[in-house]
Design brief:
The protein has 150 residues and is α+β, with helices and mostly antiparallel strands. The chain starts with 6 loop residues before the first helix and ends in a 7-residue tail after the last strand. It has one domain: Hotdog Thioesterase (Thiol Ester Dehydrase, Chain A, Roll), CATH 3.10.129. It is 25% helix and 40% strand.
C-alpha cells in the first residue's frame, strides 16, 4: 500500500512550486485576479472591478464575484500540491459592489480528510462583505507538482 506524504510536509517543501503553478491560472490572469497569499488550506486574492465587469444595473456581475471566490478556493484546496477539484459551491450575495472597488477574497479550510475538504470563502470590498461561499473539494491521489525522490 502506497503511503502518502503528509500535507504539511508537502506544503512546506514544495511551497514555491505550488504557488508558481497556482499563479499561472489563465482565467484568473485574464480577469486581473492577483493571488496575494497561499497558506496551508488558505488563500487570499484581489481583483479591481472594471467597467467590463459590470452587469446591466452597473454593479459587479455575480459571475465575476464567483470567479474571484473560485480562484481562492482552488488555491486553498490545492495548496498541499495534491490535485483537488470542486464538487460543489454555494454562494450567497450579501451586498453590491461597483466599478473601482477592490475586491478581496479569502478562503479558509474548515475540514479536511484524505478524500474531501470543506472551505468558507468571504469576498469583501473596502466597505463590507459582498458574498460568502461554502465549497466542497474532492482530493485526488495525484500531485500536480513533481515530487523529488518519487
Amino acid at each position: 500500500m502506497k503511503k502518502f506524504p503528509l500535507d504539511k510536509e508537502i506544503y512546506q517543501q514544495y511551497y514555491d512550486e505550488i504557488v508558481e503553478k497556482l499563479e499561472k491560472d489563465p482565467f484568473a490572469k485574464f480577469l486581473g485576479i492577483r493571488l496575494i497569499e497561499v497558506g496551508e488550506g488558505t488563500a487570499t486574492a484581489e481583483l479591481k472591478v472594471t467597467q467590463d465587469m459590470l452587469n446591466a444595473h452597473t454593479t459587479t456581475h455575480g459571475a465575476v464575484i464567483f470567479a474571484l471566490a473560485d480562484v481562492v478556493f482552488a488555491a486553498a484546496c490545492n495548496s498541499y500540491g495534491r490535485t483537488a477539484v470542486a464538487l460543489s459551491m454555494n454562494i450567497g450575495f450579501l451586498a453590491a459592489s461597483i466599478e473601482g472597488d477592490l475586491l478581496r477574497a479569502t478562503a479558509k479550510e474548515e475540514k479536511k480528510n484524505n478524500r474531501t475538504s470543506w472551505y468558507r470563502i468571504t469576498v469583501e470590498n473596502e466597505r463590507e462583505v459582498v458574498a460568502i461561499l461554502d465549497a466542497l473539494a474532492y482530493r485526488k491521489k495525484d500531485y500536480f507538482i513533481p515530487l523529488r525522490g518519487e
